[in-house]
Design goal:
24% helix, 7-stranded mixed sheet, alpha/beta, TIM Barrel, 9-stranded mixed sheet, 18 strands, 13 helices
Length: 469
């Protein structure tokens, strides 16, 4: 077997750049365009068609501690061939299956995980707000943080065309799941059913047009952008056409509207085979939680303590966010543990590049490690103490890890191929400098990304002693 040397797909990005300055007022999950997109050109694969497993992927043998999120839970070796995992197990078993020419990566004291999945973000589409000049630079920033997949949660016609152009040029170094925008951030800003002349599915092995995005309320939940009847009709048509629907809903008022709409579309007890989602799901009453569980909806939540997400509600209690939370029930907020104990699949979102403390995207933010650690202690960079109302909602390391792997893949409707390392899954791996499963939150925050591997190819490497030249 050969010494580890890799031929990365595209260029290998350098370590993350210095802070990128915020140029626009943070609005929360923003949509930069307010013009209705034209009907998209081109078409995706037929609805229900299987995505290609790989397309010209690489081959690697990874040796060391491997957290699989499957069985066995921890392995000693992992073999990827042509971009897909073909064997996971003991060192001797997997070595016996590997060809002589397969590059070997010995990760030493580092730890490998299924490639981390950012289930809700705007890395590419909103890059101009942070002085990022190109899609390549935006994707490099995500890859360097350890993400192998990103979900672009507000894609209009122009953004879709850009993504399809990148895919056609073989210029996507990571996987992108696009959610087509159905409205702007304004009352009555509905774009119409512009998705109607295409079907959800893969464009190629890196790009999927996965679902539709509805922005129901504002970042603080103070403004509702939809009328209930319009929302219900829109979601009903989307579900009938076979599309997964992702709805931004922060406040209890928004939860009530979206739950009513989903109940009308799929019934009060589901089922939910398309994995319809509620983004942020920040303020949820007991009755609303029971309805979410009955329909098996997927909450996608932000765990890293960004001040404009769950911490904003604590600020709201002091009257500086346009909503008097002091008159409301704090037990309704950020119900991370409650969601999991109720049996829901819970995915994590960086919401990058939005919601960074001080309005600056720095190298220590929007990482998988921040999501896991924040879920464990309820703290963020600007919030050194755990809010008292968060104590009962804290997660374990394993739960946080699931939120960026197994359950994130579930939120994308791709849990059979991503989020785990098992025979037949995609060859996406993130290597960190430590073991999330046995570390404290602060130790996890200090972990470095050693390598990000997509489709069996090294997309990012910070340690050439591990990853090769």
């Amino acid at each position: 077997m050969t010494t580890a040397r890799f031929s990365p797909r595209g260029r290998v990005p350098a370590a993350p750049s210095a802070a990128l300055i915020l140029l626009a007022l943070v609005m929360g999950c923003t949509a930069s365009s307010t013009n209705a997109p034209a009907s998209p050109g081109g078409s995706a694969a037929p609805s229900g068609a299987a995505s290609p497993t790989t397309a010209g992927g690489g081959s690697l043998l990874i040796v060391g501690r491997i957290v699989t999120m499957d069985e066995p839970a921890v392995a000693e070796a992992l073999l990827i061939e042509d971009g897909a995992v073909v064997a996971v197990g003991s060192r001797d078993e997997v070595l016996a299956l590997a060809g002589e020419q397969v590059p070997v990566i010995d990760i030493g004291q580092n730890v490998a995980y299924p490639g981390f999945i950012d289930a809700h973000a705007h890395w590419i589409g909103d890059r101009e707000y942070y002085s990022i000049d190109s899609p390549a630079e935006a994707m490099d920033a995500a890859i360097a943080r350890g993400w192998t997949s990103i979900s672009e949660q507000w894609v209009d016609h122009g953004r879709l065309s850009e993504l399809e152009t990148l895919a056609a040029a073989d210029a996507l170094p990571l996987r992108v799941d696009a959610y087509l925008a159905l409205n702007a951030l304004e009352v009555g800003g509905y774009y119409g059913d512009w998705y109607a002349d295409r079907e959800p599915g893969p464009v190629d092995d890196r790009l999927r047009v996965q679902g539709l995005k509805i922005h129901l309320d504002s970042g603080t939940g103070a403004i509702l952008y939809w009328e209930p009847a319009d929302l219900t009709a829109t979601i009903g048509r989307a579900v009938d056409a076979g599309w997964q629907v992702s709805v931004h809903a922060v406040s209890t008022e928004a939860q009530e509207m979206v739950l009513d709409a989903f109940e009308a579309a799929i019934g009060p007890r589901g089922p939910n085979p398309l994995h319809h989602r509620i983004e942020h799901a920040l303020q949820v009453t007991d009755v609303q939680l029971a309805r979410m569980v009955a329909m098996d909806l997927v909450p996608v939540i932000q765990l890293d303590g960004a001040p404009y997400d769950w911490v904003l509600w604590a600020a709201s209690a002091e009257g500086d966010r346009g909503r008097d939370l002091a008159a409301e029930d704090l037990s309704w907020l950020a119900r991370w543990s409650d969601f999991l104990e109720a049996g829901l699949h819970v995915a994590a979102t960086s919401d990058a590049p939005w919601f960074f403390p001080d309005g600056v995207m720095t190298d220590d933010l929007a990482r998988p490690m921040d999501q896991i650690a924040g879920g464990m202690d309820g703290r963020g960079r600007d919030f050194p103490e755990t809010p008292g109302w968060m104590v009962d909602q804290l997660l374990t390391a394993q739960q946080g890890l699931r939120a960026v792997t197994v359950d994130a893949a579930y939120a994308l409707g791709d849990e059979m191929r991503r989020g785990r390392l098992a025979s037949g899954t995609l060859g996406d791996v993130t290597i960190l400098s430590g073991d999330v499963t046995s570390a404290t939150p602060d130790e996890i925050r200090a972990f470095e990304v050693i390598a990000t591997i997509v489709n069996g190819d090294v997309a990012y490497c910070s340690d050439t002693a591990v990853c090769g030249d």
